[in-house]
């Protein structure tokens, strides 16, 4: 197989995109929905704890390693002149960069930082207002990250098909 390095890099990129898509998907379909069902003050405390705990090496490798893997895979596809795969990887990298990284930095992180500044305990009315102001917009922003990472995953899967056809 003459494109074994490209195949391995594409699989690594696919794994990274899949991990991040799955992460955002889980938040969309269960985590925030579950938090919306409990007392707002408890939801705030839980979200503060989850936001603090997500800053770890395992998440960092997946989140920050994926665009690096995509970029290296794209460069390899271009160097080996697998043009279709290179185009699909460029689309994946754009989806990830704009829809995941940029949106996270501009929307979700500032919202998380603001929530981290909330001091507990709160009155029930304060907690309800803070959670309502946070949860809905955060979920909408996360849905966009989920879609963007899903598109990156799909584009990377397309590149894998094109790489295997060329090998």
Explain the overall architecture.
With 167 residues, the chain is mainly α. It has one domain. It is 87% helix and 0% strand. The protein contains five helices and no strands. The longest helix is centred in the last third of the chain and has 43 residues, at 124-166.
* Share of helical residues: over 70%
Number of strands: 0
Quickly count the helices.
Answer: 5
Low-confidence stretches: none
Category by helix and strand content = mainly alpha
How would you state the average pLDDT, rounded?
A: 97
Protein name: Putative membrane protein
Keywords: Membrane, Transmembrane, Transmembrane helix
Transmembrane segments: 57-79, 86-105, 142-163
Pfam families: Anthrone_oxy
Reconstruct the topology from this structure:
Layout: H1 4-35, H2 40-53, H3 57-79, H4 83-116, H5 124-166
Helix pairs in contact: 1-3, 1-5, 2-5, 3-4, 4-5
In short:
It holds the Pfam family Anthrone_oxy. By secondary structure, the chain is an all-alpha fold.
List keywords for this structure.
single chain, about 170 residues, mainly alpha, 5 helices, Putative membrane protein, transmembrane, transmembrane helix
